[in-house]
């Protein structure tokens, strides 16, 4: 990113003071379509979509070179079951039943991939009906399970990906997924993990997306404060159950064709349908543009846990720790791990600013390579956003009540190092 674009882009930001950014509303539900690969830069995406938190669709030209686009699809645009079975037949995969509601999602089970493909073929043959219901292969960590497979290349626009950078570093998890499902399979109403961004590329098939900007979901809650399972259900018209539904805006609707990539902004609730037999590749990701939203989400989640078990506060000596444990079981992260998340991201960028990039690191698919592609100014931007959130975390009363002696370096030392690295880089 050049200095002029960087300066213009950062001017869009408001200072975070522990509260979420204001809701963003699209005029008349318009979603931009990005067609030309050669003329659309990372700076364009950063300025026009990441910062204003605005969805967009990339044309099929952005995925033309992917191995999965060539080999996972038959000549007539259908899933290439034979090829997929040859490559992944012995894998175990997570499969959801779209016909069953379990709390506010669909129940999942683990199935052999070859059994799922057999089911899918039979489902199509029987006119998209089965006594087993409509089964949808979701959240399959294919890249982690088959790292040797050259399936796709993450577009540069999504390469500033702190979420996967951190979980790769601790070798615990990742947020890169493959979805496969028949016509009629769908995902209920939700916002993505940690209020992350997401991008979703159709390898084949078509999807319909219903999107609601941040804040609109409040109008869709029932009188108990619960979000709906299905935003298209007739029951939402019952004002005695959903008293504010008539104040909600219509959703932003996207029909995504084969090869296209949809960018879903941070905190946008959505519901998704497969209009045909469809395969997609999805990433969830966080970076300097939305890490403050992630921090606000965690504060809201902890506050909800604290309200839920408030009656146990006095008799329970470790009440604050128990709240953290419950929050982690629900969200996947607690305050101390969030600190470690910020630390890993910060230290990677400090290392580059202080030591530069070696040729080997910049040539590989690593965080250093991504930072090298985006430039040193982007590393400084990342550190500035980390400083703001880390300062807020360090001052947070719930964080200070935890045993922080295991954190290395201590928050104050990390903050000092961060600020010094920024000052040195800007000299």
CATH uppermost class of the largest domain: Mainly Beta
> How large a portion of the residues is in β-strands, by DSSP E?
15-25%
**CATH-defined topology of the largest domain:** Jelly Rolls
Could you give the order of the helices and strands?
Answer: HEHEHHEEHEHHEEEEEEEEHHHHHHHH
Question: Could you describe the largest sheet, including whether it forms a barrel?
Answer: 9 strands, mixed
Mean pLDDT: 91
CATH architecture of the largest domain: Sandwich
Shape: globular
Low-confidence runs (pLDDT<50, min 5 residues)? 1-27
Number of contiguous helices: 15
Structural domains: how many: 2
Topology:
Layout: H1 3-10, E1 32-34, H2 42-50, E2 56-58, H3 67-71, H4 81-88, E3 92-97, E4 108-112, H5 113-125, E5 135-140, H6 142-145, H7 162-170, E6 176-181, E7 186-190, E8 197-204, E9 207-212, E10 252-256, E11 261-264, E12 269-274, E13 278-285, H8 291-308, H9 319-331, H10 335-355, H11 359-363, H12 367-374, H13 376-395, H14 397-400, H15 411-425
Parallel strand pairs: 1-2
Antiparallel strand pairs: 2-11, 3-4, 3-5, 5-6, 6-13, 7-12, 8-11, 8-13, 9-10, 9-12
Give me some keywords for this one.
427 residues, alpha+beta, Jelly Rolls, nine-stranded mixed beta sheet, four-stranded antiparallel beta sheet, 37% helix, globular
Describe this structure in words.
The chain is α+β, with helices and mostly antiparallel strands and 427 residues long. The chain has two domains: 24-213 and 249-285, Jelly Rolls (Sandwich); 290-426, no CATH class. Helices cover 37% and strands 17% of the residues. The strands form two sheets. A nine-stranded mixed sheet has the order 1-2-11-8-13-6-5-3-4. Strand 1, helix 2 and strand 2 (56-58) form a beta-alpha-beta unit. Helix 8 packs across helix 9 (319-331). The radius of gyration is 22 Å and the shape is globular.
């Amino acid at each position: 990113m050049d200095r002029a674009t960087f300066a213009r882009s950062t001017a869009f930001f408001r200072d975070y003071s522990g509260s979420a950014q204001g809701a963003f509303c699209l005029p008349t539900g318009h979603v931009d379509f990005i067609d030309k690969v050669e003329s659309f830069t990372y700076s364009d995406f950063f300025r026009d979509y990441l910062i204003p938190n605005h969805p967009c669709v990339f044309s099929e030209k952005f995925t033309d070179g992917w191995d999965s686009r060539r080999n996972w699809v038959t000549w007539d645009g259908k899933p290439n079951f034979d090829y997929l079975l040859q490559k992944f037949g012995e894998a175990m995969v997570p499969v959801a039943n779209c016909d069953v509601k379990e709390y506010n999602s669909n129940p999942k089970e683990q199935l052999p991939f070859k059994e799922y493909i057999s089911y899918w073929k039979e489902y199509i043959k029987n006119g998209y009906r089965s006594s087993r219901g409509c089964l949808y292969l979701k959240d399959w960590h294919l890249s982690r399970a088959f790292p040797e497979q050259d399936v796709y290349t993450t577009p540069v626009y999504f390469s500033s990906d702190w979420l996967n950078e951190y979980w790769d570093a601790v070798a615990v998890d990742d947020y890169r997924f493959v979805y496969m499902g028949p016509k009629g399979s769908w995902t209920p109403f939700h916002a993505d993990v940690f209020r992350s961004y997401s991008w979703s590329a159709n390898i084949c098939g078509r999807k319909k997306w219903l999107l609601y900007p941040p804040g609109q979901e409040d109008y869709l809650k029932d009188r108990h404060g619960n979000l709906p399972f299905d935003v298209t259900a007739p029951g939402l018209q019952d004002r005695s159950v959903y008293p504010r539904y008539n104040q909600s805006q219509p959703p932003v609707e996207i029909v995504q064709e084969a090869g296209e990539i949809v960018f879903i902004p941070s905190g946008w609730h959505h519901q998704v349908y497969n209009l045909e037999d469809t395969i997609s590749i999805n990433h969830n990701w966080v970076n300097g543009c939305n890490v403050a939203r992630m921090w606000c989400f965690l504060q809201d989640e902890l506050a909800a846990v604290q309200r839920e078990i408030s009656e146990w506060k006095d008799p329970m000596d470790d009440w604050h720790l128990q709240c953290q444990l419950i929050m982690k079981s629900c969200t996947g992260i607690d305050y101390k791990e969030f600190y470690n998340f910020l630390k890993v991201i910060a230290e990677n960028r400090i290392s580059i600013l202080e030591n530069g990039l070696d040729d080997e690191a910049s040539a590989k698919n690593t965080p250093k390579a991504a930072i090298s592609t985006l430039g040193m100014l982007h590393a400084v931007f990342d550190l500035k956003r980390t400083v703001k959130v880390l300062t807020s975390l360090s001052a947070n009363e719930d964080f200070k009540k935890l045993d922080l002696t295991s954190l290395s370096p201590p928050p104050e030392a990390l903050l000092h190092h961060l600020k010094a690295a920024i000052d040195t880089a800007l000299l």
